[in-house]
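Example 4.3 (complexes with small molecules)
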Amino acid sequence: MRVLVTGAAGFIGSNFVLRARATRPNWSVTALDAMTYAANRQSLAPVLSDLGGDGSVALVEGSVADAPLVDQLVADHDVVVHFAAESHNDNSLDSPWPFVESNVVGTFTLLEAIRRHGKRLHHISTDEVYGDLKLDDHERFTETTPVNPSSPYSATKAGADLLVRAWIRSFGIRATVSNCSNNYGPRQHVEKFIPRQITNILGGVRPKVYGSGLNVRDWIHVDDHNDAVIAILEQGRLGETYLIGADGEHNNLEIVAMLLQLTGRPGDWFEHVGDRPGHDLRYAIDATKLRLETDWRPHYGDIRAGLAATVEWYRDNEDWWASAKLETERTYSRLGR
Ligand code: NAD
Ligand code: DAU
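Answer. The structure with DAU bound is encoded below.
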């Protein structure tokens, strides 16, 4: 099977490529990435020949919004796994246009190529399209929860999801969609919460918690997310949406407390900073449908163990994140966060 992975030099996409090489050696994988600030070629080093890897994957530099390029690549592959997106909420509040271009126009461009060539698509999305839940109830998102996005990022992801659903219904394309909760693990950009705090601590800087720190996210290890995507590709029903989550709800103060404990710092060694405008309170996924229809089960039940391994990865790979860290913290200080 020839698989085109978009956004393959980003966090989840690069982990997907490495996971697919390890668990599906008969797949032939091509990586497509616009190589924005969020991409890192080093993340694909094990499979890129010019970086000393085994040369099993070709990396094409280009945008999913580039129609002629996308048309040719889609024609040459059997399946497209579509991770490419602008992904960071804080950036979307500062500068929304790249989110519309990559997430909406990019997905539209891909859908048209999929329709022309009759290929299979799996579209990667987020639980943020459903908006947020109250802190004090037990409700969780399901596949029938209405979309209700809060930020420019989540609005563009909801727009992309709706385009995919419309292309399934009106044009009969062979596609599936998944909406996953917050991922953590190796190779995540240092703008995101967990890597930002790990690299702060490693650099002797206190973690920075937005607002009260009571906001809840439903954490899942990136390998568990990617294994679920592979399960949907192989066992999912065409036309369906699947929610992916691993029952990993924690508020931000709890995550910071675990990171401080893992790095031997006192529990109060963090600071509160200004809140994110429109900050979603709580996300929580009910993944019953995925569990009933596929044999997928998460392997990282213990977030503390997953976080410990992630801390070690950042400790061992400072070359991978050092320059992005400088740039990211310059942006955060301009935003007052
Ligand atoms: P990321 O920012 O680390 O990676 C995104 C990649 O997409 C980058 O390499 C970037 O260069 C590339 N890209 C951006 N615009 C592009 C374009 N126009 N053409 C081609 N490539 C482009 O993001 P991530 O955290 O790896 O997220 C990947 C996908 O998973 C996104 O669709 C995101 O919405 C979704 N998702 C993320 C999470 C999470 O917790 N990070 C959770 C659920 C879903
Ligand atoms: O839910 C899935 C989504 O998770 C994905 O769709 C997004 O691509 C991904 O970025 C993530 O969105 P969040 O906004 O939840 O993630 P982020 O890492 O930016 O923030 C997680 C929580 O931590 C959130 O409540 C904001 C808070 N935060 C974040 C940063 C960067 C802080 O308290 N301090 C920080 O420095």
